[in-house]
Write a structure and sequence with these properties.
Helix content is about 50%, strand content about 0%. The protein has helices at about 1-20, 35-40, 45-70, 80-90, 100-105, 120-130, 135-145, 185-190, 200-210, 215-225, 230-240, 255-275, 290-295, 295-300. α2 packs across α6 (about 120-130) and α3 runs parallel beside α5. Bound molecules: zinc ion (2 copies). One zinc ion binds near residues 290, 292, 303 and 305. The site of one zinc ion (ZN) has 8 residues, from α12.
């Protein structure tokens, strides 16, 4: 109920100031202060109500960031600085209304509206909350963390493999689809072994399989399913570091999901192609270490590279073929 009420209030705020973008009325002789103008909307609310609205606004900003990460097709190293820049970008744009966040979540694609209003919600909120709660910024942050939620179930849940406390940031059967924000398909490609990541043909096929509405959930379900792997690959998995720690019912932190994908994503890709295709491609003798797959698309398409190298490409004089 508190969540719904806060959503509608934030939505009303966005509608009042953004759709269509409304200019602040011209005031002769004075510089226009957008934050102050927007703060007038927020002042009638109590401190608790303001904190709830802020949580909803943060949620919408997070959703925009999540979809942006998902659709990013170039590798983007995530650093604290970049996150801060991105958060600042989100917060200075008026495109964060709940209906927009819901729409981009459904489409999994960011689309830009024409209404940009600088110093959007957060500047106005800072003004209003400082008047209602004239304590310290730290105190306001602590209260914000508890806004809307009365109790958080699973807050102290631990990772099944490394036992680190991950709480709601853990991944498992019920939320594999959320992974795509953290593991976009470019990152998935990077987790394949050897020279498979720059293999454009296989990269395209991986994107086709994973980037569907239920693609990630299905992929993870099958990755935990041993029947997906051939006997030879089962043997490889059984001897892989960390084997045995994986249970389809478990919850895992992002670092452990990365280890799991590093071990099994290529196995899954191979199993998937065998299921989907009637004709089985011959294995390239250099397996995933093959260098030709990187620059020769016909070779990448003709031979299978989801297999362990039978020969070492880097030491083979014949490997300078095209
Ligand atoms: Zn872990
Ligand atoms: Zn090859």
């Amino acid at each position: 109920m508190r969540f719904h009420r806060a959503v509608y209030r934030f939505w009303l705020f966005c509608t009042s100031f953004c759709y269509p973008a409304r200019e602040v009325p011209f005031q002769a002789g004075g510089e226009i202060n957008h934050s102050e103008y927007h703060a007038q909307f927020l002042r009638p609310f109590s401190a608790e109500e303001l904190l709830d609205i802020r949580r909803v606004a943060d949620f919408c900003a997070d959703m925009v960031g999540w979809v942006t990460d998902y659709q990013t097709i170039t590798p983007r190293p995530v650093s604290a600085e970049q996150t801060a820049i991105f958060t600042a970008y989100c917060r200075s744009n008026a495109e964060l209304a709940p209906d927009y966040a819901l729409e981009i979540y459904r489409r999994l694609r960011i689309f830009h509206k024409q209404s940009h209003v600088r110093s959007f919600f957060w500047g106005a909120y800072d003004r209003a909350i400082a008047e209602k709660l004239p304590t310290t910024a730290q105190d306001r942050e602590e209260r914000l963390a508890k806004a809307i939620l009365r109790e958080v179930y699973g807050e102290h849940d631990t990772c099944h493999r490394c036992h680190a406390v991950g709480g709601l940031k853990l991944y498992g059967k019920t939320n594999w689809h959320w992974m795509r924000g953290e593991f976009n398909w470019t990152k998935l490609r990077g987790l394949l072994p050897g020279n498979l990541p720059p293999n454009k043909y296989e990269g395209g096929r991986l994107a086709q399989r994973a980037c569907t509405p239920d693609g990630y959930a299905r992929m993870m379900e099958e990755i935990f399913d041993a029947r997906c792997a051939s006997p030879q690959q089962m043997h490889a998995q059984a001897h892989a570091p960390g084997a045995g720690a994986w249970d389809a019912e478990g919850l895992y932190c992002a670092a452990c999901v990365e280890v799991l994908l590093g071990e099994r994503l290529w196995v899954w890709c191979d199993a998937r192609q065998q299921r989907e295709s009637d004709s089985v491609r011959e294995d390239c003798c250099y397996g995933w270490g093959c260098r030709t797959q990187v620059h020769n698309i016909e070779h990448a398409e003709m031979l299978n590279h989801f297999c362990m190298p039978a020969r070492d490409d880097s030491e083979d004089p014949e490997s300078h073929r095209v």
